[in-house]
Fold this sequence. Notes:
Strand order of the largest sheet: 1-2-4-3
Order of helices and strands: HHEHHEHEHEH
Oligomer: single chain
Shape: globular
Structural class: alpha+beta
Amino acid sequence: MWDFFETVRHRHSIRRFRPEREVEAEKLHAILEAAASAPSAGDLQPWRIEVIQDPGLRSGLDAAAPGESFIGEAPVSLVFLAEPARSAAEYGQRGANLYAIQDTTIAAAYAQLAVVAAGMGSTWVGHFDEAAVRSALGLGEELVPLTILCVGYPAEVPEPTPRRPLEELVRYR
């Protein structure tokens, strides 16, 4: 089993998947459990996750995200949706506008790392038309689509991209 730091180092954005290789149900379940274990303000878990395996629905997501054609190729897409009202009930406007978004993002990040730990790859897609995603999945206005996480076995692993040095990112005081 890899340690956590190895998992983080092996996370890459995968844009070519092996569509013939399905994501095993037990691995998908483990990924969803990792997302469900993410911390959230007041332990409210103000998110929902739509697991999209149906090719027609994946095609609808593909159409909602121009230029992101790999969405339709990935065998699974996890759509992370914030539930602002759930956070607002406890924390008011700040809960709705910030905590629900942060908490949903943390859950998606946990899932993304779990995908790597399970021996697969993913791509985080944030560039999409919210209304088109809602329409494709038949969702109401009470849910805010935040990310589409495409999941599957990589057809290729890209070279790591350069990262800014810590000296530019961190300030010790």
